[in-house]
Amino acid sequence: MRGGCGARVLKGSRAPVLGWICALLLASCGGGHSAPQIPVASVAPTISPRHSHPMQTIGPSLAHLRASLTREFTSAGPNTGAEVVDLGTGHVLFSLRANVRRPPASVEKIYTTVALDGEFGTGTRLHTTILGTGHLDSAGVWHGNLYLRGGGDPTFGDGGFNRVWEQGYGPTAAQLVSQLQAAGIHRVTGRVFGDESLFDARRGPPSSGFAPDIPDLGGELSALTYDHGGVTGKLSPAAFATHELVLTMRGMHIGAIASQTTRRTPPGARILAAVRSPAMSDLVRLMDVPSDDFFAEMLTKRLGARFGAAGSTAAGARVIASTIASYGVHPTIVDGSGLSRADRSSPNQVTHLLQQLWHTSAAAQLIGALPVVGVSGTTRRIAPGTAAQGRCSAKTGTLDNVTNLAGYCHSRGHHEIAFALFIDGPPNWTAIPLISQMVTSIVRY
Predict the structure, then answer these.
(1) What's the CA gap between 213 and 299, in Å, rounded?
(2) Cβ contacts of 432 within 8 Å, gap of 6 or more
(3) Which of 75, 136, 149, 240 has the most crowded Cβ, counting Cβ within 10 A?
(4) Tens of pLDDT along 280-334?
(5) In the chain, what are the domains?
C-alpha cells in the first residue's frame, strides 16, 4: 500500500539499502495576503473578488471542459469523483459525485500542511539537544551522563546522508559535537542516553497497526531519529541516533559510551549543545514534493505534542482535524500521511478548503510546498509536455488502485482554478494517464 513517494531508506549500519530519491525542485513561496501566484512562466493571474452566481453562462470553453472531463471520468469508472472551481467567480465548473467521501491517500498531506503552517507558523524550527548531569573538570572530563533529547526533527542525521536524501537540509551530529568541543569536553565518564520521551513509542502509522512500516515510511517513528528513522540490529531509532552520535564524538576525539537503552532527561540537566531543524516552510516542502510519509507522520506527532494531548498520531490527527474544521471542512482524519484507508474526504471538501485559503498567505504557503505538475516531485510524470506542464501546483494521492490529484491551476484562459480529482478502482498505471488528461483539460479552459 502506497501513500506517495514514501519509503526511501532502510538503515543497516550506515548504508541505505532500500528507497529512491524524490527530486525537490520547488522553492518555498512567501506570505502576504494577496492572491498567490500559481507557477506558470511569465503569466500573472488576474483575480476577481470571490462570489457566486445563481446562473452560469455555458460558453464553448466551459462546454468543452465538461465534455472532456465527462469522457475521461467515464473511462475511469463509477468509483470516482471530482470538483473543479473557478476561484475568480466561485463557479463550479465541473462536479461529479463531489460529496462522496473516499480515501484521499496523500492528498491528505494538504490538510497536514495547512495545520503545520497554521499552528506552528512557517518559521518554526524543531530542536535536538544534548544535556548533561554532572560537571566538567579542568582536564576536560565530564563527570556524569549526557542525554540526546529529540524534538521530533525528521531531518537530523549524518551530513553525507542529508546531502543525498534530504537535499542538503538538516542538522548533523557533527554540529552538536563541535559545540561539545567548544565547551572543552574531551571525555565523558558516564553514558550517553537517547531521550525520545516527547513522542509515544509506536514506530509505525495506523495503517500498519502502529507496527514499523519500512516499505511505506522508510524508517521508524520516534521523537529522536537519525538518517530518516534509521535502525540497525536491535537498536531503537533513538538508541541508533545515540550510537551514531557517539561514533561521531569518538571521530572528533571525545571519549564516550552509548547506552543501548533510552532514558528521559532528568530535571535540572544542563544544556550543552543544540541544533535546529530547517524552518517549517522547508519541512512541509520536504514532505509534500516527494510525498514523504515519514515526514508526515513525524510532524503529525509533533502537532500532537505541541498543540494536543500527547505526542501521538491520534493527538496530532485531532489537531489537524480541528484546524481544517475552522475552514468549515470536516473530513475524517486518522493520520497525517493518508496511508490509512480509514481517512475519508470528498472532492468538495478539498476544493472548499482551497477556496477558503485563496487570497490568504496560507494559499501562498501551500503552493510553495507543493510540487509542480510535469516538473517536480511526484507530479513530474503527470502531464509532462502538455498544456498543464508548469501551470499547476498539486498534491498526488496514491494507494493501491487509488489515484488522486488536487491543487491549484492557472488556465490558458487566465482562470485561477481549484480542483480535486479522485479515481478509485483502476490500477494506478492506467489511472495516471487519465489524471494527466484531466488536468490538461482543466488548464485548457
Answers:
(1) 16
(2) 381, 382, 403
(3) 240
(4) 999 999 999 999 999 999 999 999 999 999 999 999 999 999 999 999 999 999 9
(5) 11-23+124-279 (3.50.80.20), 60-102+346-443 (3.40.710.10)
Q: Residue 58: what pLDDT?
A: 79
pLDDT digits (tens, 9 = 90+) for 347-389: 999 999 999 999 999 999 999 999 999 999 999 999 999 999 9
pTM of the model: 0.90
Q: How far apart are CA 228 and CA 180, in angstroms?
A: 24
Evaluate whether 312 touches 300 at the Cβ level (below 8 Å).
no
Three cell numbers at 416?
Answer: 485561477
What residues have CB less than 8 Å from 109, skipping those under 6 apart?
A: 4, 287, 288, 291, 296, 336, 337, 338, 395
Band of pLDDT at residue 22, cut at 50, 70 and 90 = very low
Cα 83 to Cα 226, 350, 366: the distances in Å are 41, 9, 19
pLDDT tens by residue, 239-288: 999 999 999 999 999 999 999 999 999 999 999 999 999 999 999 999 99
Q: What's the grid cell of residue 362?
A: 496560507
- The type of residue at 204 is G
User: How do 187-188 and 92-96 pair as beta strands?
Assistant: unpaired
Mean pLDDT of the chain: 90
* Residue 233 CB neighbour total at 10 angstroms: 10
